[in-house]
Automatic annotation (TrEMBL):
It comes from the Bacteria. The lineage of its organism: Bacteria, Bacillati, Bacillota, Bacilli, Bacillales. It comes from Cytobacillus firmus (Bacillus firmus). GO terms for molecular function: DNA binding; DNA-binding transcription factor activity. Keywords: DNA-binding, Transcription, Transcription regulation. This is Glycerol operon regulatory protein.
Amino acid sequence: MEKLPTERVSSLRNALRLLNLFTMEEPELSLSELSGKLGVGNSTIYRLTFTLMQEGFLARDPVSKNFRLGSSILAKGTTILSQYDICKCSPDILKRLVQETGETAHLSTLTDNRVIYLQKMDAVNYVHLLSHAGKRNYIHCTSSGQAILAFQPEDVIKGVIEKGLPKLTDYTVTNPQKLKFLLSLIKKNGYAFSREEMHNGVSSIASPVFSQPGKASYSISIAGPSSRINHQSAPELAKIVKRAANELSEKIKNRNLCI
């Protein structure tokens, strides 16, 4: 195999490291911030960002001049998500869940200490939600994340807590002991009910999807305005969500999916 020049390998590595600097906490970064975090000069950052923008992997805000991930990243992410075996047998279940509840439905999993939406199906009377396939959110303040986290080993839960429990609304659970208690209730009841923990006015209900007995690898959820998803409606909606999640768990079991 032909060996690539050291300089070219170094540039490729720096480009990949640069892309990994963008996170949910820091979705936009300036040239000087990229330079400092990567430990290289501004001229190197300029060359890297110029090439990445040409290929669509980076975009630049015309006002702030900060960089952010570009459309090519989203396109690649969508391709990766479509390769999940579970995404091949979940659309019908999500569609029926939307029809039965009138709310937007999601299929989610955990990755890199975040919950990521693998699929989203909008309701006819949906409200605008800041979610899409590939979107990553905090685990502790989403029903999708909580429903999976409740069935994880103690070290995984500890890791999420150690990463921090940022407060996004007045309803966000930021106390580790309260979160653990909440997770114990979710594990007992089989569903999570998040009341405006991430966005004001938006609530959600999720139930775990099991890839193996006792191992929750995914969750199915509905999300909508708190006027429709609230303490009064939650019990009945939870039954529907749990039924959908159980159906998907059975499909995984019967098809012996590699997930």
